[in-house]
From TrEMBL:
Positions of transmembrane segments: none
Alphabetized InterPro entries for the sequence: MEDS_domain, STAS_dom_sf
Name of the featured protein: DcmR-like sensory protein
Domain MEDS: 6-144
Species per Swiss-Prot/TrEMBL record: Geodermatophilus normandii
Domain of life: Bacteria
Gene3D superfamilies membership: STAS domain (3.30.750.24)
Pfam families linked: MEDS (PF14417)
Length: 266
């Protein structure tokens, strides 16, 4: 049996948790692994919604003792049985994560390290930066194989902006009253050095008219702007606003077709 991996990451917001842990879960499911989650404390629905949006699970899906994604008790003593049981079922590997919401090194650390050394068991320990104690980051570095860097271009807890290569990823909620967030998006876009800008807005849950108008007017000038994965409402809003700026070019990729019967966007 191949060895697993034991990593940690430091998060700046709940939006970061949904993205980072959501990606970790989705990767495991796509690889045919069983994913165990503990201590989510009410974060479940945000994760399930993200898995549905990314096509990992079907609408209405819920975890159970037989699904690829499972909730386990926040008890380190019971983790060995959960891991060995999943491997006995024939899964290619097992993943484990959750949410660490207490100060200090989490009690699961001592339990997961020997499992990762023996089994194909991949662990991501997500710590929140606001809860780290003095010197804890150095302690975590010594305990883990690696740190997963999830630094954002901008993250205020409501709106989060990250970069994936040349693609800017917008997540959360963006409105015209959040001048700092708008400024961060435009600065990151202009940093592209005149190349066409591309934004992934799959995780953008809300965009008001004022913010959309500001962004289209400022960011969609030559050589244009491409939006990837816009929701129906976001796509319709951007299409309407693009008509106000005929000198601006906005292309929508993987966006649903417009539907004039749908209710008005805010």
């Amino acid at each position: 049996m191949s060895r697993g991996g034991h990593a940690f990451t430091v998060l700046d917001s709940e939006e970061a948790h949904t993205q980072v842990v959501g990606d970790f879960v989705a990767e495991g499911v796509r690889r045919g692994e069983c994913v165990l989650l503990a201590g989510l404390d009410g974060r479940e629905q945000r994760l399930w919604s993200r898995l549905r949006r990314t096509g990992v699970v079907e609408p209405g899906w819920e975890p159970s003792a037989t699904t690829a994604v499972r909730l386990v008790p926040p008890d380190p003593a019971r983790l060995v049985d959960a891991v060995e049981g999943a491997l006995a079922e024939g899964w290619a590997g097992v993943r484990f994560s959750g949410a660490i919401t207490t100060p200090g090194v989490n009690a699961f650390e001592a339990a997961v390290a020997p499992l990762a050394a023996e089994y194909p068991f991949t662990v991501l320990c997500p710590y929140f930066r606001s809860l780290l104690e003095p010197g804890q980051h150095e302690e975590l570095t010594a305990l883990h194989d690696t740190e997963v860097d999830v630094a954002a271009v901008y993250d205020d807890g409501v709106f989060r902006l990250t970069r994936r290569g040349e693609l800017l990823c917008l997540a959360g909620e963006l409105d015209s009253g959040n001048a700092d967030a708008l400024r961060a998006v435009l600065q990151a876009t202009l940093a592209g050095g005149g190349r066409p800008a591309s934004w992934d807005v799959t995780e953008l849950r809300f965009l008001d008219v004022g913010a959309a108008d500001s962004l289209v007017a400022a960011a969609a000038g030559p050589p244009g702007l491409t939006l990837v994965g816009a929701s129906r409402l976001t796509a319709r809003l951007v299409r309407l606003l693009a008509e106000r700026h005929p000198d601006r070019t906005v292309d929508l990729v993987d966006a649903p077709p417009d539907d004039s019967a749908e209710g008005a966007v805010r």
